[in-house]
């Protein structure tokens, strides 16, 4: 026999009615605790490792989305009597000259395109067996907005701050001047250093080479003349190449 007395019939019927109701309330409470509030973002598990922000630090150039192509035809070609070998593509970082630092690579975010080519020249009428007289590396930059005149302005300031520098144990002096009648504006730099023989001994003379920078509207071109194996470049050849090169860029821009 049970120690507990049975419930009266009426109370038993009320208990049976309440049981389903209590179960429904418990289920509703449980669903409410795990369901997201209307309009809220669903909860996500945080990643185990943090990722770096990809937000840019500067706004891109307005024309950065418009690709600019510098064709081979925009570069100068030597006349046959001066051409030792055909022009060839050159990496920009190898074509640009360096003085005290990286003065010529100061285009910044306004550069929309850059390319470089190299021509190898000889003395007019020289036998084909002769070694070349030198090489001229030409770099072309295209700019957005006022980037081209800004490049020339920064370059002038950088050159003035670098009257000389050391190269392979030799002191190289730098002098610059305006180059009139070339493009919208142009600059000519002359580098001078003690001349050495092929075995590295000083001859007592000096050697020199030149760099010309010219702007044609929103395009800047840099001509870096290097004499063959450390010898002097040819100022007359460079002057001709610079003026022909500016006319070539002007024709391309039209």
Characterization of the model:
- The chain has 254 residues and is α+β, with helices and mostly antiparallel strands.
- 25% of the residues lie in helices and 30% in strands.
- It has 4 helices and 8 strands; from the N terminus they run αβαββαβββββα.
- An 8-stranded antiparallel sheet has the order 1-2-3-8-7-6-5-4, with helices on both faces.
- A hairpin with a 5-residue loop joins strand 6 and strand 7 (202-216).
Summarize the structure.
The protein is an alpha+beta fold. The protein is 25% helix and 30% strand. It is globular and about 50 Å long.
Output the helix-strand order. Answer: HEHEEHEEEEEH
Q: What is the helix fraction of residues, given as a range?
A: 10-25%
Radius of gyration: 37 Å
DSSP helix count?
A: 4
Number of strands: 8
Strand-residue proportion: 25-35%
């Amino acid at each position: 026999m049970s120690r507990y007395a049975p419930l009266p019939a009426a109370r038993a019927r009320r208990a049976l009615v309440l049981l389903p109701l209590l179960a429904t309330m418990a289920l509703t409470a449980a669903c409410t605790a795990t369901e997201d509030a209307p309009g809220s973002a669903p909860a996500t598990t945080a990643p185990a490792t943090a990722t770096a922000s990809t937000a840019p630090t500067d706004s891109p150039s307005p024309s950065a989305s418009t690709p600019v192509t510098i064709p081979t035809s925009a570069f100068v070609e030597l006349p046959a009597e001066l051409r030792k070998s055909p022009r060839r593509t050159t990496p920009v970082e190898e074509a640009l000259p360096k003085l005290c630092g990286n003065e010529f690579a100061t285009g910044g975010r306004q550069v929309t395109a850059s390319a470089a080519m190299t021509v190898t020249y000889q003395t007019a009428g020289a036998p084909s067996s002769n070694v070349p007289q030198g090489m001229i590396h030409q770099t072309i930059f295209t700019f957005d907005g006022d980037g081209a005149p800004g490049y020339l302005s920064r370059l002038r300031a950088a050159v003035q701050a670098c009257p000389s520098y050391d190269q392979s144990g030799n002191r190289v002096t730098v002098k610059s001047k305006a180059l009139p009648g070339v493009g919208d504006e142009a600059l000519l730099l002359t580098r001078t250093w003690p001349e050495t023989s092929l075995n590295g001994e000083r001859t007592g003379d000096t050697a020199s080479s030149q760099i010309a920078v010219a702007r044609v509207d929103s395009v800047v071109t840099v001509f870096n003349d290097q004499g063959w194996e450390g010898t002097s470049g040819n100022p007359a050849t460079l002057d001709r190449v610079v003026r022909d090169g500016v006319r070539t860029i002007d024709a391309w821009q039209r």
